[in-house]
Specification:
By secondary structure, the protein is an alpha/beta fold. It is built from 13 helices and 15 strands. It is globular.
């Protein structure tokens, strides 16, 4: 997809992907006569399933946004929901993000649980006033009498070679706002459970979906047995160094860990999941074991969330760290479009070089 790709081209590409790569949910049979609740779903399917179950379980839950109704969303996350639950509960809005969030605030004040969508992360900027001044503060300034149960879905990050403003990494902006919680799933199973959890909270949650992973397929355990939606999660055990990431970068870090293992380097990968509040205890426990850490994210380096993660690691593990915390990030430039994305997003080589710098560090 070129740098001059239009939104119509992008939607056509998405439709083609779903048409050629569609996979029906499958049920895994462990033993004859014993059927588990594990299904193979793409992240898009897992999010769609989670929204359907939230709408079914809570008559006050509403889905709203640009083209989320009849079209089913530009990424088809809301596909079929309007037909299933009606136009009063899944409905399109004007092309005005400030209006979408302003309407959501009013709905929340009236006792509903709105689940608004902004089509792309870059489209959230026009709604920053509503997000910061109303969504994040209403519960505080009403002294707890007016909760804001809003779950804002934000297709986030890069990786799809979209036009400008269609790929951003806004986690540090959202995480800096008091009153907001921020979460980003990294797999279909995480997307399913974290969205269901977020959409039942009394607090406003910014749900950052890694759009480049929408087509990733994986096992989804809909039973939720033993699943904890809180805190961080170790997705790969290791002993030499901890890679900390979230969203789309978790899968990339797992690739890096496999390559490093070929050289005898045992990497632990920590999926931070919650970017606000950060699981400081889980983070510290992992780094205290490995004594080295590299943080990977797509946002620019300066004032990125990696700085907060590095500070927490230093505060909790200063006495045991064998090297400074390394950050492998995007650059301090506007998030690029099209083919330039490959030069901006942390790739395998850049992460491996970051690991090498940490492992080779010697004091003095």
């Amino acid at each position: 997809m070129s740098e001059h790709t239009t939104l119509s081209d992008l939607e056509a590409a998405i439709d083609n992907t779903f048409a050629t790569d569609a996979q029906q949910a499958s049920v895994d049979v462990v033993e004859p006569g014993i059927v588990t609740a594990v299904e193979t779903l793409s992240m898009q399917q897992a999010l769609n399933r989670a929204l359907a179950e939230v709408l079914e379980g809570n008559p006050k839950a509403l889905v709203l946004g640009e083209d989320v109704g009849l079209l089913g969303g530009v990424f088809r996350i809301t596909d079929g929901l309007q037909k299933q639950f009606g136009e009063d509960r899944v409905f399109d809005t004007p092309l005005a993000e400030s209006g979408i969030l302003g309407m959501s605030v009013g709905l929340a004040m009236a006792g509903y649980h709105p689940i608004p969508e902004v089509q792309f992360d870059g489209f959230a900027y026009p709604a920053i006033n509503q997000i910061v001044c109303q969504v994040g503060r209403m519960n505080y300034r009403s002294r707890g009498t007016m909760p804001m149960p809003i779950t804002l879905r934000v297709p986030s990050f890069g990786g799809i070679r979209a036009p400008e403003h269609h790929g951003e990494s806004l986690e540090s902006l959202f995480a800096h706002v008091p009153g907001l919680k921020v979460v980003s799933p990294s797999s279909p199973n995480e997307a399913y459970h974290l969205l269901k959890h977020a959409a039942t909270r009394p607090d406003p949650v910014i749900f950052m979906e890694p759009k480049s992973r929408y087509w990733q397929k994986g096992p989804v355990d809909t039973s939720a047995d033993g699943y904890s939606p809180e805190g961080s999660r170790i997705v790969r055990e290791g002993k030499h160094l901890t890679l900390v990431a979230w969203g789309a970068m978790v899968a990339r870090c797992l690739q890096v860990a496999e390559l490093a293992a070929e050289d005898g380097i045992d990497i632990e990968v920590l999926d931070l999941r919650w970017l606000k509040p950060i699981d400081a205890e889980g983070l510290a426990a992992s780094v205290a074991k490995t004594r080295r850490a590299v943080v990977v994210h797509e946002a620019p380096l300066t004032s990125g969330l990696g700085a907060e993660v590095a500070a927490l690691i230093t505060e909790h593990c200063f006495g045991t760290l064998r090297a400074p915390v390394e950050r492998v990030t995007g650059f301090d430039v506007p998030y690029p479009s099209g083919d330039l994305e490959d030069e901006y997003v942390p790739n395998i080589d850049r992460i491996l070089f970051g690991i090498q710098r940490v492992l080779e560090y010697r004091r003095g």
